[in-house]
Design goal:
- The protein has three domains: about 230 residues, Clc chloride channel (Orthogonal Bundle), CATH 1.10.3080; about 220 residues, Clc chloride channel (Orthogonal Bundle), CATH 1.10.3080; about 160 residues, CBS-domain (Roll).
- It is about 50% helix and about 5% strand.
- The strands form five sheets. A three-stranded mixed β-sheet has the order 5-7-8. Strands 6-9-10 form a three-stranded mixed β-sheet.
- The chain starts with 14 loop residues before the first helix and ends in an 11-residue tail after the last helix.
- Keywords: Antiport, ATP-binding, CBS domain, Cell membrane, Chloride, Endosome, Golgi apparatus, Ion transport, Membrane, Nucleotide-binding, Repeat, Transmembrane, Transmembrane helix, Transport, Ubl conjugation.
- It catalyses: 2 chloride(in) + H(+)(out) = 2 chloride(out) + H(+)(in).
- This is Chloride channel protein.
């Protein structure tokens, strides 16, 4: 019988137990308990205890032999009681009940004095103040990351001789010698070949620049993976699968701590600057959630309540997407659609406020120097036509196929990394992938530039002054009408760019599979968008040339006349980017909103919706899981997906423990076990809690008690009260059981007993049980028959059963 370590829930408590939880103890108290080998990342994640428990004892009687030997030790609140161990699931019902009790107490006291009224108002305002701080901190860090990454990316190609802190663009802003044809060349900017051998021409100069590009890329990647490995192992990856798991109620100590925040911020800049096929958008959600978790410690309301803290983390995730894409509304919808498990209306408002403040802060910093929130903000001037829905849907099909292919191959590679010797050498793996990426990237200008700049180039609508090869058309017109240019025949530069983009597409598809999941911060949004944007631009240019040379065809002649601006290739790139991102993540509503916030126009919602839905349908037909859900299952996180339905006809008795031929369920009796008996059970088992029954013979259920609360209560009783010995009787009833004279003190532990644990009967369909676990956030429920305890179903049992019904390995449901 293996009960899930983190799967013991308390359904409800008597009023007195809530008071015992309103102590200085909370989840923060656990930080002194070593739970992981990653000590450095765990340390100082939360502040120390607010204060030590008073040294007073609570007695209900005299010494040994007195007529009243009853002791209710938990009249005094004990630090640690009501909190959770690492890698455990929180009790949603208990946490919400505790918050309601706290709020009721504050409301009642506010009528008694002016000071209490002020405290009540400040308590109500604290949530908005916390959102303000999260938005300011998230926006500031995002601006710092953007500016640093831009500068370090350019550092691979050269430096600004007038000021080392200027990136290439800023260095050449006020130069008088920059032309539109050679906008990247100015006297103030020196390439490495100019610095080292005083020339920028010839094969040797090319080799020097090539060598320095690869060298800087390897240096940045080595620093990133080394810092993650040594200081904060939790700073790797995108963080979104773990954020989803944490928001569902799971506790991973240190994952949102200050060391993780510091190291992730530094290494994210290094990883993006190395030129690897990854983005910073996913990790920015992790960074924002770290900010939210750390700032929660300034407010008791959120520091002491895990459910309230998760509401804050949902809002922080919205702020993270807001600064990642410059899309505040899309960030709120992303948090609601993709990551949040519990999202009440109040959290929706506060998420909106946090996203607004974060976006405003980033806009004030202006990291890209274009008065925009993102590097690839574009505006198109040509409306789309109904026939174009066909190529848009084709892009959706491509996005779905790419998403399904990427998920399968990336998960297979990550599983190989976890199960072979490859996983033991993360530094070597990162350096090898970086070296291959840099060596292949340098010869091609579209792989050499940063992925964000590539997307910006692909989204761009060509104008008269554009010197990009993608805009190298033959100008066969005399005047242009406003900002619109007519469709033109492609020049040599466009054909050259098409070949280079085709090679870039192949490289991005292959290298991203091996990059995502390495032990460095790595986001997936930007690489997925790049793949789609390349495919979309290729298709867009093809459609543009088809319309130019065959405008008399039936599909064109009704809406595209010669000399008109019919096709916008940049729009195809944007639709392709949305399709590929949707195929990988399975986002729909939030994806469309993010993409139209990027373009600044509502006119293209229908093409985006068509592509996003098509990609989701195609990808779902080939595999139901998005990339984040797939990584949650790969890592064995105890995440119960709320979107999937359980369609099997099994009963609670088929899933509960113990099964036939298993040892009997380990229980405690309400008034007949000694301290030694309970300590023996605790030492011989690893269960996270125990049902309490009237007696072993009757098996009538009384309640449920958590292992952690038992250990803390007994240890404190032994330290603080001399009369409690191994032979002392522990009882969970209201009154002390009748005892013979001259027996040791009894120990009353009723206040840690959950008197209303959630129960189902043995004939309850598992479909209902699974729904109960999802909607109430339960960790366990007890199974009874006519009031007699039969067994227990934990969250892990439910997850194992779902995996078994889906013909998957049930033993994979384990925190790996």
């Amino acid at each position: 019988m293996a009960m899930w370590q983190g799967a013991m829930d308390n359904r409800g408590f008597q009023q007195g137990s809530f008071n015992s939880f309103q102590s200085s103890s909370s989840d923060e108290d656990l930080m002194d308990i070593p739970e992981s080998a990653m000590d450095f990342s765990m340390r100082d994640d939360v502040p120390p205890l607010d204060g030590e428990i008073e040294e007073e004892r609570s007695y209900n009687g005299g010494g040994i032999g007195s007529s009243n030997r009853m002791m209710d030790f938990l009249e005094e609140p004990i630090p640690g009681v009501g909190t959770y161990d690492d890698f455990n699931t929180i009790d949603w019902v208990r946490e919400k009940s505790r918050d309601r009790d706290r709020h009721r107490e504050i409301t009642n006291k506010s009528k008694e004095s002016t000071w209490a009224l002020i405290h009540s108002v400040s308590d109500a305002f604290s949530g908005w103040l916390l959102m303000l701080l999260i938005g300011l901190l998230s926006g500031s860090l995002a601006g710092l990351i953007d500016i640093s990454a831009h500068w370090m990316t350019d550092l691979k190609e050269g430096i600004c001789t007038e000021g080392l802190w200027f990136n290439h663009e800023h260095c050449c802003w006020d130069s008088k010698y920059v032309t539109f044809e050679d906008k990247d060349k100015c006297p103030k900017w020196s390439s490495w070949s100019q610095l080292l051998i005083s020339t920028d021409e010839g094969a040797f100069a090319y080799i020097v620049n090539y060598f320095m590009y690869v060298l800087w890329a390897l240096l940045f990647a080595f620093l990133a993976v080394s810092l993650v490995k040594v200081f904060a192992p939790y700073a790797c990856g995108s963080g979104i699968p773990e954020i989803k798991t944490i928001l569902s109620g799971f506790i991973i100590r240190g994952y949102l701590g200050k060391w993780t925040l510091i190291i992730k911020t530094i290494t994210l800049v290094l990883a993006v600057s190395s030129g690897l096929s990854l983005g910073k958008e996913g990790p920015l959600v992790h960074v924002a959630c770290c900010c939210g978790n750390i700032l929660c410690h300034c407010f008791n309301k959120y520091r002491k309540n895990e459910a309230k803290r998760r509401e804050v983390l949902s809002a922080a995730a919205a702020a993270g997407v807001s600064v990642a894409f410059g899309a505040p509304i899309g960030g709120v919808l992303f948090s609601l659609e993709e990551v949040s498990y519990y999202f009440p209306l109040k959290t929706l408002w506060r998420s909106f406020f946090a996203a607004l403040v974060a976006a405003f802060t980033l806009r004030s910093i202006n990291p890209f120097g274009n008065s925009r929130l993102v590097l690839f903000y574009v505006e198109f001037h040509t409306p789309w036509h109904l026939f174009e829905l066909v190529p848009f849907i084709l892009l959706g099909i491509f996005g779905g196929l790419w998403g399904a292919l990427f998920i399968r191959t990336n998960i297979a590679w990550c599983r190989k990394r976890k199960t072979t010797q490859l996983g033991k050498y993360p530094v070597i793996e990162v350096l090898v992938v970086t070296a291959i990426t840099a060596i292949l990237a340098f010869p091609n200008e579209y792989t050499r530039m940063s992925t964000s700049e590539l997307i910006s180039e692909l989204f761009n609508d060509c104008g008269l002054l554009d010197s990009s090869k993608l805009c190298d058309y033959e100008n066969r017109f005399n005047t242009s009408k406003g900002d619109e240019l007519p469709d033109r025949p492609a020049g040599a530069g466009v054909y050259s760019a098409m070949w280079q983009l085709a090679l870039t597409l192949i490289m991005k598809i292959v290298i991203t599979i091996f990059t995502f999941g390495m032990k460095i911060p790595s986001g997936l949004f930007i690489p997925s968008m790049a793949v789609g944007a390349i495919a979309g631009r290729l298709l867009g240019v093809g459609m543009e040339q088809l319309a130019y040379y065959h405008h008399d065809w039936g599909i064109f002649n009704s809406w595209c006349s010669q000399g008109a601006d019919c096709i916008t290739p940049g729009l195809y790139a944007m639709v392709g980017a949305a399709a590929c991102l949707g195929g990988v993540t399975r986002m729909t509503v939030s994806l469309v909103v993010i993409m139209f916030e990027l373009t600044g126009g509502l006119e293209y919602i229908v093409p985006l919706m068509a592509a996003a839905m098509t990609s989701k349908w195609v990808a779902d037909a080939l595999g139901r899981e998005g990339i984040y859900d797939a990584h949650i299952r790969l890592n064995g996180y105890p995440f119960l997906e709320a979107k999937e339905e359980f369609a099997h006809k099994t009963l609670a008795m088929d899933v509960m423990k113990p099964r036939r031929n298993d040892p009997l369920l380990t229980v405690l009796t309400q008034d007949s076990m000694t301290v030694e008996d309970v300590e023996t059970i605790i030492s011989e088992t690893t269960y996270s809690g125990f049902p309490v029954v009237v007696s072993r013979e009757s098996q009538r259920l009384v309640g449920f008690v958590l292992r952690r609360d038992l250990i803390i209560s007994i240890e404190n009783a032994r330290k603080k009260q001399d009369g409690v010995v191994s032979t002392s009787i522990i009882y969970f009833t209201e009154h002390s059981p009748p005892m013979p004279p001259y027996t040791p003190h009894t120990l009353k532990l009723r206040n840690i007993l959950d008197l209303s644990p959630f129960t189902v009967t043995d004939l309850t369909p598992m479909e209902i049980v699974v729904d109960i676990f999802r909607k109430l956030g339960l960790r366990q429920c007890l199974v009874t028959h006519n009031g007699r305890l039969l067994g227990i179903i934990t969250k892990k049992d439910v997850l194992k059963h779902i995996a078994q019904m889906a013909n998957q390995d049930p033993d994979s449901i384990l925190f790996n």
